[in-house]
What does this fold into?
Amino acid sequence: MRALVIDNETEIRNSVVDLIAAFCPEISEIGEAFSVETGILKIQDFKPDVLFLDVELGDGTGMDLLSRIGQVNFPVIFITAHNKYAVDAFRFSAIDFLLKPIDPEELMRSVERAKTQSTVRISEQLQILKEFISNSLNTDKKIVLRDNASIYFVKVADIIRCESDRSYTTFVLIDGKRIVVSKWIKDYEELMEPHGFVRTHQSHLVNISKIQRFDKLDGGHLVMENGDQVPVSQRKREEVIELLSRF
It folds into this structure.
């Protein structure tokens, strides 16, 4: 594999190059660039199999660079300082990222994913990332979900609820489709709460706008628009009642 590292901070760029050389034997060639302009030229000349791209470059952003090269046909791994909003954007779009300072084990996992990643729909993923970062108020905001066979681009407003089974989470959509992803429901709790979702139970996360009613008998459960019944734990009962009272 050929890897290209684009970062405007020389010390960080050198560190990434050194880590790749030390921990990623499948990468045989490593190129470098330090800006949007030099990065575009290097991509055209070097033709990388995987791109490590800093979010903020001296003459623009990593998204500016990707917008200018047109079709992206290689995996992109963003490099970013810890910022919850940026991290949420990457998780929503299922685009890989590494936090500074880079952990060698995280680096190896990212490279391993890049080796098998399909790039057929990466441009759509990058568009979702761009919309999230631009803080679009578009009600058609989407999240990218992956199962063993496919990548799905799902409107957040079309998700009725999420249900966990240990390390797997099932997304139930308004059209009846169920998508099972191999991630803990807690990974989605923090991500989805700002978009109108609430954790009602250890195993359940629901879209507040899709709740039809709250039945208080037998401990209490929610009835969703599609007829599904979702339990409400005793610990979450008051929080759920208070949330519903606002609608």
